[in-house]
Amino acid sequence: MLSSAFLSGSPPAPIPIVAKAATVAPVIVTEVRPAAPPEPVRRVVQAYDFETPPPAELFSNSIVPRPGAAEEGNRYCLKGDFSKEYDVQAVSWHNWQKPLFAFTENEELEFDYYLTKAAPWANCSLTDAPNYGLLLESHSPGKWLHARLRLSDFSRTQVGGEIPPTSGTSVHCVVIQCPAIPGAEIYVDNLKLTSKDADPRGSAGNSAPR
Ligand SMILES: [Ca+2]
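Above are the sequence and the calcium ion SMILES. Below is the predicted complex in structure-token form.
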């Protein structure tokens, strides 16, 4: 049906320009979560990538080409050696003359590790006597995995339960190992110790007067 404007021959009335209300889907707020605080920058205390030979007194394992997929700028790692005494394949970082570090709540040990399929488990232990250990994930043989271990999470088992380390206890040796069964091999790379940095503002600016 034609409009009356056409029927009468007069020009059509101008169409008013009206801002069209935007169609907005209703927003349903189910939960408001505060943004996670950024993780504090960690200070690298010691780090070894094995691209150049590390101090010989700290590592006795062989430096070998990394197994698995090639990685730009990262070609070498340590290969676990057979320890007849403990019947394991192990990589060790050690210094018997002075401690590598001491247990603190602020420090973490990080490294990449690679297990062959035959390795049923792996762990990391920190020695002096007694040893403090942590079991590592070992469900992805043939892949590089990353371990990030808080020193405060290590423990030793004794009658009565798990005993955490005492802050300040010296660590002379870090061992990353798997059982020495046929075909089981372990490789370690990018070993480092990191520390939680202190607040650069210090405590003076925010502390209440005493
Ligand atoms: Ca490397």
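Residues 49-51, 74, 76-77, 189 surround calcium ion (CB under 6 Å).
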